[in-house]
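Q: Can I see a sequence and its folded structure?
A: Here is a first one.
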Amino acid sequence: QVQLVESGGGLVLAGGSLRLSCAASGRTFSSSAMGWFRQAPGKERVFVAYITTNGGHTYYADSVKGRFTISRDNAKNTAYLQMNSLKPEDTAVYYCAASRFGDLISSAPSKADFGSWGQGTQVTVSS
């Protein structure tokens, strides 16, 4: 199992940017597809973005498409989420996750597809 630690969250004004990082340790990072999810207060944890094991394909929720970019550096065992043009509705705790079995079939994976999770990092966007 891979251990994950997120960082980079914080408070930002609407229209601003943040870059989240997810540092991995444990079993081989490069064999895990990586995802980002978020959970707003009182709501379910939902899919944000996903990147395949070699970084060749990325997928996004419609709500963040064109504003967020997921990437990874397998040499550094780290995944990233670049968030631009942030909106108040992006306020949530953001979690990174590693897939259970390599690349996924679905372009909109569920929480069940991921076996390892970080502790989350708070992102707050003020208007």
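Q: Show me another, different protein.
A: A second, unrelated one:
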Amino acid sequence: QVQLVESGGGLVQAGGSLRLSCVVSGRTFDSLGLGWFRQAPGKERAFLAGINRSGGRTHYTDSVKGRFTISRDNAVNTVYLEMNNLKPDDTAVYYCASVTALSDLVGIGVRSYTNWGQGTQVTVSS
């Protein structure tokens, strides 16, 4: 059973930065594709960024390109989301997700992932 635990959320002013972390256990980390999603109140869970099992490929949704960076450290079983120039519209619960990867492609939708963390709240004040 794969377990994912996010941390690093909090309250930040617009223009500020946060770094989210997600520690993964229960499966060989370098066999997993990983992604970050968010869900704002009243909205569906939305893909933000994904990274393939080797870390050599990434994909971002347009709204976060140039502001967010996904990375992984296979030595400590952790995936990160570096978020810069945060905006009030970025306020949401942020989730990391994993899938046992059958290829080196990056998953880019909710249905591409099978395991989820409990989420961490990010609030951006104006």
